Amino acid sequence: xxxxxxxxxxxxxxxxxxxxxxxxxxxxxxxxxxxxxxxxxxxxxxxxxxxxxxxxxxxxxxxxxxxxxxxxxxxxxxxxxxxxxxxxxxxxxxxxxxxxxxxxxxxxxxxxxxxxxxxxxxxxxxxxxxxxxxxxxxxxxxxxxxxxxxxxx
Length: 153
Hints:
alpha+beta, 5 helices, 153 residues, 25% helix, two-stranded antiparallel ribbon
């Protein structure tokens, strides 16, 4: 996730801290874009699904306990949009596993959806940490047509 979006726009204003950002690999899960966006009708938000043999790279953010409550609000946990899931993540830097919290959507999924380009850019903002091949994979994903693109010229 975009560190400016996470830390500067979400955590810091609520008095929550991010202490560290490192690469993580979540095994036996796959990244999908099947969660309808709560903010942009017709667009997808990221999701994770269990998938034997697959893996997802991401940025592990070590945040304060207060930070999880802040993220719960943005991920709409109270309304059931996402739920917290505790996972075991490999840190390739030292080959150690850590226990982490992620967010998973399990309801109202639609596999026909695509993310907005601007949304995908939030994931690509982790390019300072994510493997180059994974960044290229993310860049190759199809995106939905933006509302502005649907307007007549």
